[in-house]
Amino acid sequence: MNDDVLNMSLRKFLKKVGVTSQREIENAVKAALESGRLKGNEALKAEVRLTIPEAGLDVVIEGAIELE
What we know:
alpha+beta; elongated
């Protein structure tokens, strides 16, 4: 295993995850606000599941996204 290759590959993957996740969350929140499902002062529970079956990884990361 080449640690430098792994590190760069991880950074590229995490950047993609971060950018895509932010865009999707923003779009979903805006749509929910426009439809009235959200008021705009909530703290939204969020979770992400990260899996890499070949490495035996299956972890859920929990957090909250505050709107105000």
